[in-house]
Amino acid sequence: MIVVHGKTAHLFYNGPVKDHNFQNFQFKADVMTHKGANSGIYIHTAYQQGGWPSKGYEVQVNNSHTDWIRTGSLYGIENIKKVYVKDNEWFTMYITVLDKRVIVKLNNKVVLDYTEPDNVQRAAGDKQRVLSSGTFALQGHDPNSLVYFKNIMVKPLP
Predict the structure, then answer these.
(1) Does this model's pTM top 0.90?
(2) How many domains are contained in the chain?
(3) 3-state secondary structure the chain
(4) What are the tens digits of pLDDT across the range 41-64?
(5) Domain encompassing residue 115
């Protein structure tokens, strides 16, 4: 189990599977948040020493933090306000990426189905927030957030 609790930080996958460069995949993790916790799973990202990853998308993990963008959102791109899972209970998050489409399921319920527009344009500071390829990162948002991740699996797709 990976425990996310401490200063703002990101844990990047840097391993042999696909040389940590995924394009199409199915990602699965069991997650538990505690009251007020905020975290996320970055996809199509790249290692950077500090700050919020500038490349790829963040799939939000947040059931009760003061930030209203809830679990399953593509943070700042396709935001969900509804709470689908509870704090202090394990839930399974599935993320599937097929070309320009992202599907997020929580406990087998589809909560997000997003297709990135062709030739998508982002603001100057968000130019790399697009689907391309890259690795994964688990987010440690702040010292008051406590989140557990376990049974993390990735299946590369053609």
Answers:
(1) yes
(2) 1
(3) CEEECCCCEEEECCCCHHHHCECCEEEEEEEEECCCCCEEEEEEECCCCCCCCCCCEEEEECCCCCCCCCCCCECCCECCCCCCCCCCCCEEEEEEEECCEEEEEECCEEEEEEECCCCCCCCHHHCCCCCCCEEEEEEECCCCCCEEEEEEEEEECC
(4) 999 999 999 999 999 999 999 999
(5) 2-156
pLDDT in tens, 117-141: 999 999 998 999 999 999 999 999 9
Supply 38's token pair.
Answer: 């905020």
HSE of 26 in the Cβ direction (CA atoms, 13 Å)? 6
CA distances for 14 relative to 21, 58, 126, 135, angstroms: 9, 18, 23, 7
Distance between CA atoms of 33 and 4, rounded to whole angstroms? 10
Q: Counting Cβ atoms within 10 Å, is residue 45 exposed (0-12), middle (13-18) or buried (19+)?
A: buried
Mean pLDDT of the chain: 97
CATH code, 51: 2.60.120.560
Please tell me the predicted confidence (pLDDT) of residue 58: 98
